[in-house]
Amino acid sequence: MIGFRAALAATTMLGGLSVASATDLEVTHWWTSGGEAAAVAVFADAFNKTGHNWVDGAIAGGGNARPIIISRISGGDPMGATQLNTGRDAEELVKAGLMTDLTEIAERDGWADFIRPAKLLDSCRYEGRIYCVPVNIHSFQWMWLNRGVFEDNGLEIPKNWNEFVAAAPALREKGVIPLAVGGEAWQINGMAGVFQVALGGVELFRKINVDRDLEAAAGPQMTQVFEAIGTARGMVDDGFVGRAWNDAANMVITGKAGAQIMGDWAQGEFSVAGQKAGEDYDCLPGLGVYPVLDTGGDAFYFPKPADDNPEVVAAQLEMASLLVSKEVQVDFNLKKGSLPIRGDIDLSAANDCMQKGIKILENPDNILPGGEQSWSSDTTGQMEDLWVEFFNDPDMPVEEAQARYVEIIENAD
Ligand code: GAL
């Protein structure tokens, strides 16, 4: 703790301006698409302005990056800072004491007073201390539609999933792929969560993802979710297997496809493509059926330096404080397509879709627990494998898939 106190004093003494020796921090993350790169540059620029040095360690794809990040930290080769999902990604590393304690900065800056919903910061707590800083709110509960594809073909722009399903055959006839999907496991798993809410309502989502209610998981509403994934399977092109989410987003941006069900990070792609919400594209939170949001997202962790160097810890604390500052939060989230973790900032520059999201967030009843905050990485992995197997195999009976789903929940840790 002495090292920590020296670091905190160093930060406080310098009043957040590191006039003393500049410190390099290697920062790992998986933000490599156009929109993500534009957003992470906001963090890097802000940190470099303090006089320290952001050494970018981008690793493409969450599925690749996460195990690399975790094994480096547990293997004694820690980076200076890393992005992971808000939730249980780093649970074992925090328990093993491998993460820098951020509690003093969190209390000094009053994180608990402005970070909302409170469960984002709660996901960073362990035994009364704070070990990560949430930086955004991402929700998978969105559908993105290319307005021109419908208008140019004399079709009404769908206002919900059912209207979209009804319009799909007409899109196909016009040579437009109705639904752009990237076939990676996490994408199909995310889409299943969106259907749970859109078809089964908030109640079904909570029963399964919070109460782990096996009756609900085995019930008729969840059967509808499996059937909807089957319907979605019939709307894609053959090239979906292994497709990256941002390539699927690009199909909607360029009009090759009519829509995509994807988290609001997709909006960053529309933004870098110069497209405007409400003009070039539309967004349907909760597929236009149940306008709710899950509050998944990203948090930054700061692995303890192998040599306990207090200058590194000081720079880590400075970065943690910077990432939730008002100005950085606005600039970063506008580029990332996510929502800020604080409600006390001016978001007049936010576009139609972000405004829709902020409105939904105002009512706590519209906020769902992000799946990754409910399940361990192992359980999430089993669910992802089941969903991608079911999506790829039109001959897999719904009954068989749903029975395996119930079993995963029954054995979830
Ligand atoms: C999520 C992450 C988002 C975005 C997305 C696609 O896990 O929270 O920030 O990067 O992956 O890569």
Q: What key phrases describe this protein's structure?
A:
413 residues, binds beta-D-galactopyranose, 4-stranded mixed β-sheet, 5-stranded mixed β-sheet, alpha/beta, D-Maltodextrin-Binding Protein, domain 2
At CATH level 3, the topology of the largest domain is D-Maltodextrin-Binding Protein, domain 2
What is the count of DSSP helices, taking H or I runs of 4+ residues? 20
**Number of spatially distinct domains:** 2
- The rounded distance between the terminal residues' Cα atoms is 33 Å
Number of strands: 13
How does the overall form come out from the CA principal axes?
Answer: globular
Overall mean pLDDT: 92
Q: Which CATH class of the largest domain is shown? A: Alpha Beta
Give the bound compounds.
beta-D-galactopyranose
- Fraction in beta strands: 5-15%
CATH homologous group name of the largest domain = Periplasmic binding protein-like II
- Low-pLDDT runs of 5+ residues are 10-19
Q: What is the level-2 CATH architecture name of the largest domain? A: 3-Layer(aba) Sandwich
Give a concise summary.
This protein is an alpha/beta fold and 413 residues long.
Tell me what you see in this structure.
With 413 residues, the protein is of the alpha/beta class. The chain folds into two domains: 2-137 and 296-355, Periplasmic binding protein-like II (D-Maltodextrin-Binding Protein, domain 2, 3-Layer(aba) Sandwich), CATH 3.40.190.10; 142-294 and 363-410, D-Maltodextrin-Binding Protein, domain 2 (3-Layer(aba) Sandwich). 50% of the residues lie in helices and 12% in strands. It contains 20 helices and 13 strands. The strands form four sheets. The protein has a five-stranded mixed β-sheet with strand order 2-1-3-12-6, sandwiched between helices. Helix 2 links the parallel strand 1 (24-29) and strand 2 (53-58). It is globular and about 65 Å long. The two termini are 33 Å apart. 49% of the residues are buried. Mean pLDDT is 92; it is low at 10-19. It binds beta-D-galactopyranose. Residues 30-31, 36, 62, 85, 138, 245, 265, 297-298 line the site of beta-D-galactopyranose (GAL).
